[in-house]
């Protein structure tokens, strides 16, 4: 069987080629019987002395041929390809159907019948493939494409939380593909494409939620679960927007959100589970400065410094004013002790500085008192004023860091709660003169869970006395340092 792109060979018996006994016998019986009587007699006589050669007659058994083709892998060149369409490019693009091709038994039988009259075995029949049309007809394809274009012509307004946005034709087009159901074709949305598209478009509208809050109750961490962050979109959003577009109501579609983390996991991820550092400093009772210490402690209590983030006391509390509950108390103004609103809060700063020192936090900005005050650790302390000097620390751990100040009438304690990360020790201290001032260096070693040690140093510079600079000269009364 000689086909375009393929030649198939088989034994006669395989395909059902058989001797046509009846036709062959008829040919034998008709031999020598043509012409007039004399010719017929002569032919009859010669039949006794000379052999006669006659062509055999063949026929094709249809059932055998069909059964052979049914089991023959080469009997089909290709399956039909159904037409389809897609809007992935931003507009509807049609892929036309392609006919399948197969070897048809009736075509072979017709060609073989002719070959049997013209050829002797082996027979060669030249035939073409018979087409197998797609199930989806051109008319049905045209109707489905029109439906897809109507779908894409729609506009969709969606809301996520408090945010509303409108999606245009090209966006909707990219969601559309064809789906075949039997001999029909219809436009549908690809759920995974819709999901990715909406997540990308609406990513700026994700809601960060509210973080959990932490308090210390009876020496243990108490957590009030926050509101988890959410984003677009929950599973099933493709069906929601498809139904909204096909309904053609024009209503804003509220998209279902998905929590990026549940509330318990959100709280657990912060990692505030244990006390990692604390420091206490003492002061006299009942002075105005104590009121300021208590006030700034109340304002900062409960602050959580996220991993890698910095915390600035001045940025968080702002300027200390009477309206915020601060009162006048002792400060250091250019090396002299004076009263000013907010005086005394450097005791909070020093206590926070030392708790941060032993928690392994980094110091971004700090400044020691210009005059050493004996209630603070020598060379390891900090002052505050507004807008500077400031105390800024960075959380160097992978966990949240809770600042938890408490106080009595004569002391201030700052606890830092997190997950133990650094093993911190003060490894030494040295000092040297800068003119008549004294420069103090305090050395720290931090060892992380992997056993890697880091060394750093903090500094303090002290004047030779009240109202004197490092040259021993009197200082002008300009800058305020809150004691």
Walkthrough of the structure:
The N and C termini lie far apart (107 Å). The longest helix has 15 residues, at 138-152. The protein contains 13 helices and 31 strands. By secondary structure, it is α+β, with helices and mostly antiparallel strands. It is rod-shaped, with a radius of gyration of 48 Å. It is 27% helix and 31% strand. The strands form twelve sheets. It has a four-stranded antiparallel beta sheet with strand order 19-27-26-20. It has a three-stranded antiparallel beta sheet with strand order 5-8-9, with no helix packed on it.
Count of individual helical segments: 13
Strand order of the largest sheet: 19-27-26-20
Arithmetic mean of pLDDT:
90
The biggest beta sheet reads:
4 strands, antiparallel
Based on secondary structure, the structural category is: alpha+beta
Shape: rod-shaped
- The helix fraction, in percent, is 25-40%
Rg calculated over all Cα atoms: 48 Å
> Span from first to last CA?
107 Å
Q: Give the strand tally.
A: 31
Low-confidence stretches: 478-483
């Amino acid at each position: 069987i000689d086909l375009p792109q393929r030649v198939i060979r088989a034994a006669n018996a395989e395909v059902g080629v058989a001797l046509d006994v009846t036709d062959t016998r008829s040919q034998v019986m008709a031999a020598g019987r043509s012409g007039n009587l004399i010719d017929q007699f002569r032919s009859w006589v010669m039949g006794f002395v000379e052999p006669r050669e006659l062509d055999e007659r063949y026929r094709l058994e249809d059932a055998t041929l069909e059964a052979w083709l049914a089991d023959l892998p080469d009997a089909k060149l290709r399956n039909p390809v159904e037409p389809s369409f897609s809007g992935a490019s931003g507009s509807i693009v049609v892929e036309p159907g392609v006919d399948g091709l197969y070897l048809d038994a009736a075509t072979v039988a017709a060609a073989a019948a002719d070959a049997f009259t013209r050829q002797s075995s082996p027979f060669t029949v030249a035939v073409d493939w018979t087409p197998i049309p797609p199930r989806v007809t051109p008319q049905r394809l045209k109707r489905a494409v029109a439906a897809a274009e109507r779908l894409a012509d729609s506009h969709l307004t969606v809301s996520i939380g408090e945010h509303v946005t409108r999606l245009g034709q090209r966006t909707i087009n990219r969601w559309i593909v064809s789906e075949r159901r039997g001999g029909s074709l219809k436009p549908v949305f690809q759920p995974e494409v819709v999901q990715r598209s909406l997540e990308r478009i609406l990513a700026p509208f994700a809601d960060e939620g509210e973080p959990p809050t932490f308090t210390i109750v009876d020496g243990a961490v108490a957590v009030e679960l926050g509101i988890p962050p959410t984003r677009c979109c929950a599973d099933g959003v493709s069906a929601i927007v498809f139904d909204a577009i096909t309904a053609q109501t024009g209503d804003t579609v509220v998209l279902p959100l998905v929590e990026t983390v549940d509330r318990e996991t959100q709280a657990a991820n912060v990692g505030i589970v244990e006390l990692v550092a604390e420091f206490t400093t003492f002061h006299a009772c009942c002075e105005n400065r104590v009121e300021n210490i208590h006030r700034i402690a109340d304002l900062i209590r409960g602050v959580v410094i996220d991993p890698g983030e910095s915390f600035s006391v001045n940025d968080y509390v702002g300027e200390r004013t009477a309206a915020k509950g601060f009162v006048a108390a002792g400060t250091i103004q250019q090396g002299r002790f004076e009263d000013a609103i907010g005086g005394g809060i450097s005791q909070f700063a020093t206590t926070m500085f030392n708790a941060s020192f032993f928690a392994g936090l980094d110091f971004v900005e700090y400044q020691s008192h210009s005059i050493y005050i004996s209630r603070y650790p020598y060379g390891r302390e900090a002052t505050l004023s507004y807008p500077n000097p400031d105390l800024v620390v960075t959380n160097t751990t992978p966990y949240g860091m809770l600042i938890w100040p408490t106080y009595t009438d004569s002391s201030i304690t700052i606890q830092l709660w997190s997950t133990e990360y650094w093993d911190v020790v003060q490894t030494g201290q040295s000092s040297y003169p800068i003119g008549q001032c004294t420069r103090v260096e305090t050395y720290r070693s931090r060892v992380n869970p992997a056993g890697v040690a880091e060394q750093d140093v903090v500094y303090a510079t002290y004047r030779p006395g009240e109202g004197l600079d490092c040259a021993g000269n009197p200082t002008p009364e300009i800058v305020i340092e809150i004691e």
